[in-house]
Amino acid sequence: LLPALVKADPEALAAQLAASITLGVGQFCTNPGLLFILEDATTDKLVHALTEALKKAAAGVMLNSSICRSYYTNRTHLKGIAGVKALLEGEDAFDSC
Fold first, then answer.
1. Structural contact between residues 88 and 55, judged by C-beta atoms closer than 8 angstroms
2. Can you tell me the distance from the alpha carbon of 65 to that of 73, in angstroms, rounded to the nearest whole number?
3. Backbone CA torsion sign across 81, 82, 86, 92
4. In the predicted structure, residue 48 carries a pLDDT above the cut 90
5. How far apart are CA 45 and CA 9, in angstroms?
6. Structure pTM?
7. pLDDT band at residue 82 under the 50/70/90 scheme
8. How far apart are CA 58 and CA 65, in angstroms?
9. CA–CA separation, 17 and 52 (whole Å)
10. Residue 82 to residue 97: CA distance in whole angstroms
11. What is the rounded distance in angstroms from the CA atom of residue 42 to the CA atom of residue 13?
């Protein structure tokens, strides 16, 4: 994400990103998986706004149990990597996969 875009309207950008991330419960090939943001004065504002927007997203059903299990397995793995900090984590529904 280019700094000028982030600086222009971090709240609107966060809303657009949240909608794209959660489209189809995040299972579309075009959903953003990684965001690269240059750290500056507006970075925290964008991260906070995106976290708040994602908190409002409703839970959904994944396409199949294999995708569901893979999601939770990989989420657990990523949280165990040094330096990784989860900003938002929904309920663990692994048992319902």
1. yes
2. 12
3. positive
4. yes
5. 10
6. 0.81
7. very high
8. 19
9. 12
10. 28
11. 12
**Is 96:64 a contact under the CB 8 Å cutoff?**
no
| Residues 6 or more apart in contact with residue 69 via CB below 8 angstroms | 94, 97
CA distances from residue 1 to 9, 13, 89 in whole angstroms, order as listed:
12, 10, 23
Q: Give ∠ CA 29-15-78 in degrees, rounded to 5.
A: 50
What is the average pLDDT value for the chain, to the nearest integer? 90
CA dist., res. 87 & res. 50, Å (int): 10
User: Which pair of tokens denotes residue 17?
Assistant: 């990103």
Question: Can you read off the two tokens belonging to residue 44?
Answer: 């925290």
Tell me which residue has tokens 């809303």. 15
Structure-block tokens of residue 30: 């075009």
